[in-house]
Design brief:
It is a single chain. This protein has eight helices and 26 strands. The protein is of the alpha+beta class. The chain folds into three domains: about 190 residues; about 140 residues, Sandwich (Immunoglobulin-like), CATH 2.60.40; about 130 residues, Immunoglobulin-like (Sandwich), CATH 2.60.40.150. The strands form five sheets. Strands 1, 2, 3, 4, 5, 6, 7, 8, 9 and 10 form a ten-stranded antiparallel sheet that branches. The protein starts with a helix and ends with a strand. About 15% of the residues are buried. About 0% of the residues have low confidence.
Length: about 525
């Protein structure tokens, strides 16, 4: 019986398992629980406030803020470069830190401090989004959202009194919302002189800290104390409006600020060639400094004279004595026809010694091409006297630091009056019906100034400066600014207006400086940026 009961018990157990599996499968297939429902998917706009609050920390900033842009390309770029950036950043940080540590350790009777391990890990930081601000000043403002949940390993060994202790930083998390400003923008690579960094909110910093192998951050109270200490210290130094300034370029060289004045005295010309069919020529001289956007200086016209004497003096600003050249062009004035070029020559500024007047007698050439056969013929001579007067170092630095401060008017400005400086920066969406070759005409009290003409450009940039000397403050006057397009190809429509604006000058007299963009009248979407300065003596 014992053997039979064992056999039946075995089969009974086996049949029980089989029957249990069949019954369980049947219930699983044909009976569904009523308390489990399919997940319901809703758009963010239909979520309740509590759910949204739980989800917001995980939502990218470019979704929460429509004015923030996605920068996936930048994250991909950093991801590919991270192994190399890791080594470069660590090497730079080590080179900066070690001299500072070597200078400080004698004060604390420490024998030595060394980096045993220094790596930022394999996980790069990510940019959740970036906001870019557009201003009327020469600057670029960016506000990225940076998150870095990295796995760095920084191990520092400290030796003192014959003992050695190690400090290890692990599992770093940093969440930042910095504002990065690149200014001023300059025409020298990398196109900005300084970087200004400030934090728009307190940063979140979390990390593990091991001292002699023990996790210091696991001690009750230490973790929160260190967290708050780091936040407060960083906020005190860099929370907006406080900034960290990093100089990239020498500002005076990058901005190409004037370093001196070139005094030019045009004395006379000899043996000029006749350009008029019925008599002599009507010569005048144009002076232009290369690399300068200021208009050319012109002498008076000497009518019917091939050996004219001017004895006229001019002052030109100098930005780089090593590379700039003074261009001297002689033209034959024509009342109706185009002014004919009679000859030219150049004088490199590096050929002039400071504070020493030097007279030059130059042979006039057709152009500066040494292989041009026309330069073999004589086109006459011109005599000029040059004196270069450099600024003092103190005056140059002070002038750059106060570049936003309105300068004083030059000597000779009428008492009670002043100098109105008009800087034409750029225009946007200026489109002509027949052609778009824009230039700007600025008119005040009968005086007219013009910028250069830029061909086939609806978003031109001039960056040209003009001055109007006035007997009294223009509190009741208006500055007329008009954008005009000209074309010699269109016989019926050689000139057309692309828009204009009349600017009341009372504000600039009161505020000394205004830099704004104005909507052009008689233009669909055109705008122009004008900077005005009122300088008094």
């Amino acid at each position: 019986m014992g053997f039979l009961s064992t056999i039946f018990g075995f089969f009974g157990f086996g049949f029980g398992i089989l029957i249990g599996l069949v019954v369980g499968y049947f219930f699983f297939i044909y009976f569904q629980p009523t308390h489990v429902k399919d997940p319901e998917i809703k758009p963010l706009t239909e979520q309740d406030p509590v759910t949204l609050q739980k989800m917001l920390p995980e939502i990218p900033i470019w979704i929460k803020n429509p004015d923030s842009d996605r920068v996936d390309w930048l994250n991909k770029f950093i991801e590919y470069l991270w192994p190399y950036l890791d080594k470069a950043i660590c090497k730079t940080a080590k080179n900066i830190a070690m001299p500072i540590i070597a200078e400080q350790i004698p004060k604390y009777k420490i024998d030595g401090v060394e980096f045993e391990t220094l790596t930022l890990g394999s996980l790069p930081p990510t940019f959740q989004g970036m906001k870019v601000y557009v201003t009327d000043e020469k600057e670029l403002i960016m506000e990225p959202s940076v998150k870095w949940a990295g796995n760095p390993n920084v191990t520092i060994s400290v030796k003192a009194f014959g003992l050695k202790a190690t400090v290890q930083v692990l599992d770093l998390q940093v969440f930042l919302a910095p504002r990065i400003t690149l200014k001023p923008l300059v025409p020298t690579f990398p196109c900005f002189a300084n970087i200004y960094v400030s934090l728009m909110e307190k940063p979140h910093v979390d990390f593990g800290l091991k001292v002699v192998g023990a996790d210091l951050m696991s001690i009750p109270g230490i973790y929160r104390f260190v967290q708050e200490l780091i936040k407060d210290q960083v906020a005190n130094m860099y929370l907006w409006p406080k900034t960290l300034e990093v100089q990239i370029l020498d500002p005076t060289k990058a901005m190409k600020r004037p370093v001196g004045i070139l005094h030019v005295k045009v004395l006379r010309a000899m043996k000029l060639k006749k350009k008029d069919l019925l008599g002599a020529s009507d010569p005048y001289v144009k002076l232009k400094m290369t690399g300068d956007k200021m208009p050319s200086e012109k002498t008076t016209v000497k009518y019917k004279n091939l050996n004219p004497e001017w004895n006229e003096e001019f002052n030109l600003s100098v930005k780089d004595t090593e590379s700039q050249v003074l261009e001297i062009n002689v033209y034959d004035w024509g009342q109706v026809r185009k002014h004919d070029k009679m000859g030219m020559n150049v004088i490199p500024l590096k050929a002039i010694s400071p504070e020493e007047p030097k007279e030059f007698t130059l042979g006039l050439l057709k152009n500066m091409d040494p292989n041009d056969v026309h330069n073999v013929k004589s086109h006459g001579h011109i005599v000029v006297e040059l004196t270069y007067k450099p600024f003092k170092e103190g005056e140059l630095a002070k002038g750059f630091e106060e570049k936003h401060k309105v300068q004083k008017a030059p000597e000779g400005t009428p008492t009670g009056g002043g100098l109105l400086v008009v800087i034409v920066h750029e225009a946007e969406d200026v489109v002509g019906k027949y052609h778009t070759n824009p230039y700007v005409r600025v008119t005040l009290t009968g005086q007219e100034k013009k910028t250069k003409r830029i061909k086939r450009n609806r978003d031109p940039r001039w960056e040209e400066e003009f001055g109007f000397t006035l007997e009294e403050p223009p509190t009741n006057q208006r500055l007329h600014v008009e954008v005009i397009s000209t074309s010699s190809r269109s016989l019926l429509h050689q000139k057309e207006s692309l828009g204009y604006i009349d600017i009341t000058l009372a504000d600039v007299v009161l505020n000394k400086r205004i830099n704004e963009k104005y909507h052009l009248i008689d233009s669909k979407n055109g705008r122009i940026q004008i900077e005005l300065q009122w300088r008094t003596s």
